[in-house]
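Let's sit down with a protein and look at its sequence and fold side by side. Which protein we use is up to you, so please pick one and set it down. Label the sequence line and the structure token line clearly, so we can match residues to local backbone shapes. Go ahead whenever you are ready, and we will take it from there:

***
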Amino acid sequence: MQINVENADGLNLEPGSSFCIVSHSISYVERILSSIIDVNNLQDLLIIKPENNIGIEEIRRIIDFLDFAPQGEYKLILVYEADKMTQEAANAFLKTLEEPPHYAIILLITTRWNSLLPTIRSRVQKRFLKFVPQGDKLNDFERYLAFWDAEFEDRILSHDYQILAEDELADSEDVLNQVMSIKAMIDEYLQKGIAEYVKFISRVSKINDFRFLKNLTKVVAWMIFTNKDLQIENKIEYLKICDEIQRSKLANFNYVLTYYTLLLGLRGEKQ
């Protein structure tokens, strides 16, 4: 395995060190790392991608992995969503983070630096990876979407997505298609009278799907932020709701109330 540690997009990844890469988009970090890592020997690479928490078993895997010298020049450990590390796991990881073997590069990756345990933050070198969309070919909303998920960028540039019909929204598993369709429909219904708009909200509110709610929230957050008619106090109120939904791991929302609150907010009205 080879890593271009000198020109890793300004990350400066020296062997024998522990780092934390902080970025808005995990998929963007993955794309950057794949461009600077040439994996010829998988025995020198360990990737931790948690489904839930990062527990003591994952840390034991890392420690065992580092017990043996690399086949190549060094070993690389990628720990995605490091903010999901439990207290027990963090305690077991501290010594390794503080004094990794001279041949090891340990990369913690997170979108939530402040959610990392303080004992972890104090033992890693922070590297912020800023996402920059390609060129001037994207409009402001498309740049915003690419900032949320860098995997969208190429598809947006090539318009490799479709606008779904209203009755297809809930069934779509394609995030980009769904987001673009939500934006198009909200734009359309905002031009109509309040009665038609409320009917639209009523239909949408029957979609009790957490992923759909999160995608709708991304669109609403953008439209609230760019709405020149909303008072700043109202913008802050609605954006806090959007942020709460995006950060939540549990689908414990009153869907009907949440949809009405967010979508009526786009018209500057409250339920």
